[in-house]
Structure formats: structure tokens, C-alpha cells
């Protein structure tokens, strides 16, 4: 099942230094089956605080399934998820949020008719007298946090997000996640639907989120983009990790080789 | 889309939003250059600001229409239409529909619909009278006492009966829509028929008169203001706070806007829908209580189009049938438009059937305006 190459241990120098640290979020030999389909066959994954970790792989490699296991959408059938080195049970996205893990989905999941501040605080409203929400306070905090993150493109916090561009909406979604995440942000193809300029802005935002000390996990199909923004890259193939790269170790050809199974630096599990 | 087109679209959008953006440049710091860039957009736009504001706000548009209509009738029938008595009569006539429509606004805000309003009203009426007839007074029951011998606790018992009817209906609607995932139009079509059937069974198809609740409608806690109007206003205020100030309303709008988004941030969509349809049911039940109080009789066949009246009022007011956008004040205005047209046509001697035609046309125009607004907003 797992592709093995004899020189698998070659580029392990950086890897062992890395293993001395405790990952903010890790998956250990996670198995997930959907009926007859084994989407994850003992997949492992590690993301460190203060780093952008890219998760790449071909369609069907299990990236989205792995992300869903780590964000509480799908409970794994086997293996463990660890937060700060401690094994955790994630049976719903709410569990993940309580542990400081926020997910930004491909399709954004903002309520288009609500304004940015309302979306940011949706489900976690600042309340007065228990039932009334404090819009002014929520707007203030949102404006402050957007300014801190440099999300300057959202010019007006009072208009519905439906009138924003794709990039602005993606920025709102990421900024929302960054506001609430204590440890980890999972981004599932955050730039897939964006133009070049908007993509650049979103990547900048991702770096700023990382610089606040969060572990950022980033799924993308765009390899140049992955190389540009990632501190660490993990490659998934056929439901298991086949390669890991530190920044500077990889190029597009090598990533393609890993994705397609021609290269691995992972010891077979 | 290439990034050049993308930027072009951004500029276009800026023109549409320029007015709002100019009023409040909310985000400081990094946003400032962006806001400045939009200043260029403002100069290009030649439409007057008041016109854009009018088109941007359905409530203002409907209010404008209502005022124009009232002015026209005042000019055509001076001293008849524009009298305090006539306006009070109008307010009295719309009060019950206002109460019901406020509840419906919450349902429609979730992109739902409640067709079962007539059964809520009729069951509310029947339960109120049944509750009264449980109380023995002399040789008869509380339902038989004249208006001047009624007691507060009779009224409270009747109200409890009506609200129980509305609660049951609302819970059934909310459960079928929220948990069984039956499309709201069909779920409430089912409870419309079933509820009316139950009301007819309970009454054997016969209406019962009672005067015991009259003070609720025509009494005056505040001198000069009929209680019915006062109750309508109180319900509007509660609805306004519930929709526009409370977390409940915010979650209602979020679910109407995108159920997916609402459930991903951890809102319990099923339970919230149950609550929203319960609010709708309670409003209908209360409407039934007020109807018995005002008309002094149940009316098992008399409310069959009240659902359409309420939905019309809500839609006229600017609440979007697609969910996510709602306005209680708009509903209050929307309730008045059909009533003013009817009353005005009668007073100026036009066949009152024209009211139905006029309301139909205005309704379609209002919804078309909502579509245009949505399309303009979702331009990209």
C-alpha cells in the first residue's frame, strides 16, 4: 500500500530536529473508511505552532478526509489526533473549536446577508442582558482585529458580505478563524476561487496569521503557491504520508514526484 | 476571471456601495487608502443620493408608497379619509393581522413560509372559547357572561387556551420543518388542513359567540387608545427587539441566509427552526384570541386567506422570501397598505374589488424590487 524507496531516510536531518518539538496538531496513523473505500490508511501529519504547514496530494489522496478528521467533522476509525501532544477525541467541529482549532472551508461558510462583524461573531455574540447582542462592541472588536491582521480590503463592516469580492470574503473567513483559533487554523484550498491579486492578499494574510504563533495548515493544489508560503510541506498519497519537506528542500518537480509516487522520504509504517 | 476584470468589478462594486462607505468608513488604519480610492468612485456616480437610498431600502420605499397613497386619498376625500376616526378604525382593523404578521416575519426570515396561519387563528379562537366554557359561572359558563361581568382571570384562562393552541401548532410545524426536513410550504399546508379540520370537529362546524373577552379588544387601558391597537403595538415592539436586537433574531437571519454557515459555526439549526415556527404558531394563536375578543364569536370559516394576507404584508414590507433579510417595521407598514387601499377605494366610491388588483400589482412590484436589489448586490 505505501510506496517505499530504499533511500527513504536520506533527507531526515531536518526531520529529526523537527521531531524534538511537540506539534500543535498531529495525526498519528489515522484510518478512515467509508464503506469499502479506505480513504486514510494510517495517515500521519504534524503541524507546528508558528509555521505554515502545507498538505498536498493528488485528488483522492485523502487530504480533505484528513482535514475533516482533524477538524472534528469525521471521527477517525483508527489512530489518534493529538493537540499539543495530548490525544483528543473530536466528535464534532464544536469539540475542535473548544480545543482552539478553527477551520476555513473551501466554500467559505459565511452568511451572505449578514455583515462582516455579525459573521465573525456568529454563534459567539457579545451579549447584554443575556438575549440582546452588542453590535457596537462586536463591530469595534472586528475592526480592531481586522486592522491587526491587515485585512484592509474590507472597507465597511455594515454591508452584507454578499457584496464583497471573493478575496474580501475569504479574508473575512480567515480573519474570523484567526480571531477565535487558539492553536490551529485549517485552510481547505483558500485561494482556489481567487484571482491573482486577491490570492496574493490572502497569502499575505496567512503569513501574518502564522506570525502570531498559530499553526496554519494549508491545503492547496497550486504547487508554486505552496512553495511560496509554506515552512513545511507534507505529501499524502493513497491515504498515507509519503514525503515531508522543509522550506527550501523541495521544488515543483520534487513535489510532483512525491505526489505521483515516484519519490518518498518516509519510512514505511 | 482575469485579475484585470476582477479589479474592474471591484471598482463597479465600489460605486454601488459608495454612499454607504462614504457615510461610515468604519475600519481605520490599513483601510484608509481603500476608502480614499473609493472617493473616486463617488464622483463618477451621477444619480442623486436620495434616489439610491430609496431604492436601497425596501422599508423606505414601501413607507413612501403608503404615504403617497394616503395623501392621494386625503386629497380625493378630504374630511372623510383623513380623519382621526377613520385612521383609528384602520388601526383597529389591521391590529390582528399585525400581530400574526410579526410572527410570520420570523418564519419568512428563515427562508420558510407558514401557510397554517388560518388554522392557528381558528384553533386559537376555539381553544379560547373552550377554555372559557370550562369555567362554571352560575348555571352557565364563563363564555356566557356579558362583557361587563367578565373577570380578568377568565380572560387569562382564555388567553392560555389560545396560546396553547398556537404552541401546539407551532411545535408541530417546527418539528416537521426542522427535524423531519419537510419543505415548509408542504409541512404547513398539511397543518393548515389538519388544524382547520380539528377546529371544525371540536365545534361540530358551528361557531360560538362570547362577549366575555370584549374588553381585551375595545377596552381602553390608555384612554383614547383601544386595547387591540395597544396590543398590536406591543407585539411590534417585542418583534422588533426579537428580530433586530436579540441574538435570537440574528440567528434566525443567519439560518435564512445560509443554513450551512449557521450550522458550521455551531448553531443548532433544527432547534432554532423549531423555535421560529413556534413563534409563528404563538402569534397565530394570539391572533385567534384577539379575533374572538374583537368579533365576539369564533369564525371557523372566516380566516382562510389570512395566511396570504400576512405573507403579502411581510413581503410588501421588504422581508425577503429568500430569507436572511427581514424588517419588523416593514411588516408594520406592509400590513397597512392593503387596508388603506381597501378603505380608500370604498370612501372615494371605487369598486373595492380594485383593492385586490392593486395589492396584487404592488406585491409583484415589491418582490421584483427585492430581486433587483439582490442581483445588484451579488453582482460578482
Structure description:
The complex is a heterodimer of chains A (269) and B (380). Chain A has 269 residues and is an alpha/beta fold. Chain A has a domain at 1-97 and 217-269: Rossmann fold (3-Layer(aba) Sandwich), CATH 3.40.50. Helices cover 33% and strands 25% of the residues of chain A. Chain A has nine helices and twelve strands. Chain A has helices spanning 13-19, 63-70, 93-98, 116-120, 135-149, 166-180, 196-211, 223-229, 252-260, and strands spanning 25-34, 37-47, 52-57, 78-83, 86-88, 101-104, 127-128, 132-133, 184-188, 215-219, 232-237, 240-246. In chain A, the strands form three sheets. Chain A has a six-stranded mixed beta sheet with strand order 6-9-10-3-11-12, with helices on both faces. A four-stranded antiparallel beta sheet of chain A has the order 2-1-4-5, with helices on one face. In chain A, a hairpin with a 2-residue loop joins strand 1 (25-34) and strand 2 (37-47). In chain A, helix 6 (166-180) runs parallel beside helix 7 (196-211). In chain A, 52% of the residues are buried. The model of chain A is unreliable at 1-15 (pLDDT under 50). Chain B is mainly alpha-helical and 380 residues long. Chain B folds into two domains: 1-46, no CATH class; 58-373, ABC transporter involved in vitamin B12 uptake, BtuC, CATH 1.10.3470. Chain B is built from 16 helices and two strands. A two-stranded antiparallel ribbon of chain B has the order 1-2. The relative contact order of chain B is 0.17. Residues 1-45 of chain B have low confidence and may be disordered. Chains A and B meet through helix 3, strand 8, helix 5 and helix 7 of A and helix 1, helix 2, helix 11 and helix 12 of B.
